[in-house]
Amino acid sequence: MGHLRRFLFQQAVFVEKLLNKEVKLAHDLLQKANSTIDKEGIQELQNEAFLKLIDFVYYNNNYYRSLFNEHGLLPESFQDIKDLSKIPLLTKDIIKSKRDQLLTPSIPDAECLTRTSGGTTGEPIYIDVNKQARINELYFYYRGLNWMGWKPGDTMVKFFGGSLSKNNYPTLKSRIKRWVSGEVFIPAFDLNSDTAPEILQLIKNQGPCFMQGYVSSIYTLALHAKQLNFKGLKIKGAFTTAEQLPQDQAELIREVFQCDVKGFYGCSEMNCLGFQKDMDGPYIIPDEILKINETTHPETGIEHSFLLTSLYNYRTPLINYLNGDNGSLGNSDPKYSTIDELYGRTGDLFVRRNGSYISSIVATQTMQITELTHKIKRYQLVQNDYDKVEFKYQLFDEAELGEDELQKILVMYKERLGDEFVITPLLTENFISSKNKKHRLMINLMSNK
Fold first, then answer.
1. Cross-referenced InterPro entries, in alphabetical order (predicted)?
2. What pLDDT is recorded for position 172?
3. pTM
4. End-of-domain residue from the set 328, 344, 360
5. Fewer beta carbons below 10 Å: N end or C end of the chain?
6. Rounded distance between C-alpha atoms, residue 416 and residue 161, angstroms
């Protein structure tokens, strides 16, 4: 079955190349990248795309033409992608307030899809993405999955927002497309103790397969599988998305499903940002279609704030875009740039009275140091005021946490957060989730006051 799907997948790509110029351009770019043997070759592709983008936005985009003129910039002011530093930062608030100016009028609406992402005030922002950018992302997404171990023809079980009771394959065309791509969609929102046996059986029926979804979804499924002592699954790999991957949760997923657990990094505005080739390894950045830099956040002072530049989105050009994520960049791969560590979202950072911020990576690092993760099933830190933090936690069934062990956790968090914080423990099964039902490890409720 896998060989047939792989053959049909390859034939579909071949036909699309003949019928669709954007697909051919994406395929050609991928072929050039794959035939390039070193960083210099990839950087040449990146620089070429960057200079074309700069030339395009100056002559076709109202926002960037005005911005460049204001700062005395011309297309000739840019020699390579290092000159990105000449361009002022693009924030979510700018995108929200200047959406009309950011839209390139020469690219018709019919060629674009609109994506949404949260703004700093919680109001969504809208990003229109042209066809070439979307197809490039799709091609390099599949290459990233290939890096992680997936091959065309392999079954991929994907957790998504939806319901078991809904018809998730409404047309014959969509059913055929899902079958050829090997994708099986499972509603993450319905995953609970009642539905877990049905979902696990559905995955078992797929035979050898990969899984992809939020960390919280795959981790929760692993917990249910362990509790039910469910046998017969043949998971070849688990790919987590959209959230930090705590080491203790990765280890439990690996233990239960007997497979490597790797992270895929993307955001609403740009879906294809990084892939882990190795478990616990760095995220490999597809430098051919984007550039990631670091900066100190101009408002919060947080270091290692990401600046994203999409090299092919000409409809809503995102250049030096401050997307709200934080991490440490590196060059540990011989061919590509890397994200050596993801720290989390700016919105999940705690704030001190003096205005300084605390990275959300404190949550996972501290819990691992306590060596008590085998007892704590789920946890969350919630900041309600400048000096007040609630430590919410849930224990594994039959696990007991002694008072001395609880105090050890609280003392360690206090050492890392600061003496000013009063940390109150709460044993509970109720945690705060995002609108997409993602489990967040650190939550700052100060903005709600």
1. ANL_N_sf, CapK_Type1_Caps_Biosynth
2. 46
3. 0.81
4. 344
5. C
6. 35
